[in-house]
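Case study 2.
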Amino acid sequence: MTKPYVKYRSGYKYQLVEEYQVKVSVLPKNDIKTDFIELSTEGMLIIKNGYAWDGPSGPTIDTPNFMRGSLVHDALYQLLRNELIDEKWRDEADEELRRICREDGMPKICASWVYIAVRKWGKVAASPESRKKIHKAP
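Prediction:
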């Protein structure tokens, strides 16, 4: 049956065009599988083709040395928001952002500022109240 409307979420800038896998220090009690994110108990994070994220947040520029870290961080924060991993893993998610940014060539001082910013202001973005709202059009 055709519906006379669409449902969507807004607020994304980027979309992954191929699956990305990375080992992270976030270790859930059980394997997690969603439409776009998987996280094993051993910390293997798989972000699937088509995943959308908003890139680096805050007063910053979306530079190449920030993109991979923002992707992984946003995926982990989505798992936090959806209560698929415990909030105790937020610090590890923030550490992963700093680690990946450093691996990708971000200067140590800048990566430290990024880490301090997400520690200070990221809690609200990780909370279930910050889930993206579903809109309907028309």
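The chain has four helices and eight strands.
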